[in-house]
Structure formats: C-alpha cells, structure tokens
Amino acid sequence: MLKAHPFNWIATIVVIVAIGIWLFISFGYIHEEHLTEATIEEKSHNEDSYYITVDGEKILVEDTNLWMVLEEEKEYEITYEWYATKQPTVVNINQPHDEDSVGGGH
User: First and final CA of the chain: distance in angstroms?
Assistant: First the structure.
C-alpha cells in the first residue's frame, strides 16, 4: 500500500494521467488523414466489404457504387478517418486539383 510520502502520490497521479491521455488518444480521438494526388494501388473486396490500397494502407470504401467507379493507378484526393481499432474508412474522395466535390453542383 502507498505510504503518505508525497513522491508516491505524485508518481501515482502522473501514471493515472498518462494512462488517461493514452486511452483518450487511442480510443476517443478520431484520426483523419488527407492525401492529395494519392494513387490507388489496388482495389479488392471480400463478401461484404470493398477496399482500396493507397500508400500500402488498406482503406475501407463503404459506398459500393463509389468503389466501382474508382480506377487503379489513377490519382485522387482522398480523406479517410479511423479511431480505436476501427478500419480506416474513406470519408471524401475527389479528383486531384478539382475544386468542386464529387457529384458537382452549382
């Protein structure tokens, strides 16, 4: 058990805060990556999921129609996000140097 020595209490508080920060960054923080002029190296799929590989990282594409339109060895602007142990997932994809988003609009 901890004695009433101040160093023990300070060390315990520092460890608890460090573990809390690590847990927040690992499981509570959404990481986002934006790639410009990213080349799709490979497209793949299994029974339920569709993936693209960019810079050696396998990224989930939730929209099947979007996955079908994408072409290997072409460049795109890709934004994807992940958190905790979730698979990185495409949030936004567009042609490079294109000012409007996919689908266009006025």
Answer: 68
